[in-house]
Amino acid sequence: MLVIGDCENFTTSPEWLPCLKSLQQLGIDNCCKLLSLPEGMQGLTALRQLNITLCPDLIRNCKEDRSKIAHVPEVCLGGDRLENQIKIRYSYDSHKKFWKYCWREEELRQQEEEKRRRIQETIRVALSVQRKALGFIEQE
Predict the structure, then answer these.
(1) pTM of the prediction?
(2) Residues with Cβ < 8 Å from 102, sequence gap 6 or more?
(3) Tens digits of per-residue pLDDT, 62-72?
């Protein structure tokens, strides 16, 4: 895994980055002035995970032109997984800040789903009690 982080004055991606043919995981964090990934990113065929956070211009450009990262199965840009991408299933202890953004979105979705299930169950139980009460009243 390669992590490029806290490079606030970093304006261009390293030209040597596409030469890392066996690179499987790449994290870019807090490189506010970074605008784009270098040419040749498509050649990183071993790259399985890409996470970019706190790089607003780079994130915007990657979302607008996905051609450089279309081959990467797991992509997280500023916390948003790209459509049709595999969700990240684990986090890294040493670089937790890079992956927690992806998880936060998934956690919120799961919490909303659980809340919806609890409400549906409460409604189901309430209707059941109401039906029993109506049945009891009709018998009298």
Answers:
(1) 0.57
(2) 51, 76, 79, 81, 87, 88
(3) 888 888 888 88
**Cβ proximity of 17 and 50 under 8 Å:** no
**Residue range 50-88, pLDDT digits in tens:** 999 889 899 989 888 888 888 888 888 886 555 434 333
In the chain, domain spans: 2-104
Q: CA torsion sign, 30 to 71 to 79 to 61?
A: positive
- What is the chain written as a DSSP string? -EEEE--TT--S--TTGGG-TT--EEEEES-TT---PPTTGGG-TT--EEEEES-HHHHHHHHH-GGGTTT-SEEEETTEEPTT-PPP----STTHHHHHHHHHHHHHHHHHHHHHHHHHHHHHHHHHHHHHHHHHHHH-
Contact (CB, 8 A) for 83 and 62: no
Instruction: State the Cα–Cα distance between residues 25 and 38, nearest whole angstrom.
Output: 16
